[in-house]
Amino acid sequence: MFYENKKNLYLLIVAIILFAFNSLNIFYGTPMVPDQHWAQKIFYLHVPSAWVGFLSYFIAMISGFLFLSTKKEKWDITGTACAEIGTLFMSLVLITGPIWATPIWGKPWIWEPRLTTTLILFLTYVGYFMMRAFGGNIERVKKTSAVIAIIAFLNVPIIFYSVQFWSPELQSHPQVEMNQQPTGILIPFMISLFVFSFIFFVMLSYRKYVISINKNLTNNV
Amino acid sequence: MDLLKLINKELRAEILNKEIIITMLAFGLSIIVIISFTSNLSKQIIEAYAPGLFWLMMLFVTVLGVHRSYAYEKEFNAIDLILTTPIDRGLIFIAKSLSGFIFITLMQILIIFPYFIFLSIDINIDFFPLILSTLLINLALMFVSNLISGISMRARISEILFPVILFPLISPLIIAATNITNSIINQAPYIEWQVWIYLLISILIVFGLSGYALFDFILEE
Predict the structure, then answer these.
(1) Does residue A185 form part of some domain?
(2) Are A11 and A202 in contact (CB under 8 A)?
(3) Whether residue A221 has pLDDT greater than 80
(4) Which candidate from A124, A154, A163 shows the least CB-CB separation from B168?
(5) pLDDT tens-place string over residues B123-164
């Protein structure tokens, strides 16, 4: 079992403690921004979720390259795990973004370039999972999934700039000025970023384990 | 030489069957009729939406045409026969894209007049930039759709997977195509829409090179 390994168990406990500390810190340890009130606090979750989502998809792309060039099973497992975790965090981005936008911009969706890029990537990965589920021949599906992961990430700057030029009048997210924020906001934000990254790596190792067990079971049936 | 032989094969197959162009044309005309019925709007609104509707129609027509082109290969196992020859597999992608480019351009020549007549569009156009940009957009359309069609070709539910994966990935191209055509129709100065040409060239480079490099992995057994 995965958690019989003491190292994995300790990592899980640390992740739970960090998550609890981060949540409490966001609620009670961060200042209230006058014009945004509680809505602003969602950014301590929204931006780290987006960071982890894009990091996952980036690793899925690298794994795709490595799988195609080496044909080693571990890169397919890493790519699949990253695609799953990335899609989970991208879903969080797509949920928290409109929650923040509703009181601030007056409506939940305004085709803001970053959110739109996230949505398009999310939809591309829906296709990725459909390919995994209904693609047929397993060996071929591994290759085609790797190719989708590569082109999905290569397409990110193209999507971002196309949406930005398409709707230049739209506001950007406030994280553009995050480095100019007072330390009361910046430090909890950086802590949240670290906690989310840590949770990502814990989730990744667990998910890789589960996928490899499933593959072994499928191969033995 | 190999590239010319492959293009020749695609063109000869189409001259014999005429399936792709006739299918694309019939489908395109049906879409125009449906658009006419569902857009009982003022002339000004129709003219404002004309470029977007045109490229939307082209997207649907491309899905049909490109899918048909790969269905041939699947039906007669022709792709397996080509793979037994010592031909660079990237060239298969280029040949499919170039022949598709010829088909869609021919189809556009045939369909553009019904499009203007049925929708009662009356606009003065500077033809040279419009033709040049349309040719570039057609090529980009074919690079993206052939890459995705190659990916989904041998999947169990290829006819569903192809548009599901294609539509999110191709959305930047549709945005760029609509803006370029719209700017030319409105006689906007080039400086205002050159950014879309740069974006279009980026799509051509990214998907052209990705398709050429990755097709080998997509087709291998």
Answers:
(1) yes
(2) yes
(3) no
(4) A124
(5) 677 788 899 999 999 999 999 999 999 999 888 888 899 999
By the 8 A CB rule, do A47 and A175 touch? Answer: yes
State the Cα–Cα distance between residues A122 and A112, nearest whole angstrom.
15
How high is the mean pLDDT of chain A?
88
The tally of domains found in chain A comes to: 1
Give the residues across from A37 on adjacent strands: A33
Q: Decide if A155 and B176 are in contact by the 8 Å CB cutoff.
A: no
Spatial separation of the C-alpha atoms in residues B182 and B185, rounded to whole Å: 5
Q: Say how many domains are in chain B.
A: 1
- A61 within a domain of the structure (yes/no): yes
Domain of B28 in residue numbering reads as 2-219
pLDDT tens profile B41-89: 677 777 778 889 999 999 999 999 999 888 888 777 777 888 888 888 8
A76 vs A97: CA distance, rounded Å: 31
Please give the pLDDT value at position B41.
66
The whole-angstrom distance between residue A61's C-alpha and the CA centroid of its chain comes to 13
Between A217 and B61, where is the model more confident?
Answer: B61
Residues of A with a Cβ under 8 Å from any B Cβ are: 68, 120-121, 123-124, 126-128, 130-131, 134-137, 139-141, 143-144, 146-148, 150-152, 154-155, 158-159, 161-163, 165-166
Candidate from B160, B165, B175 with C-beta closest to A162: B175
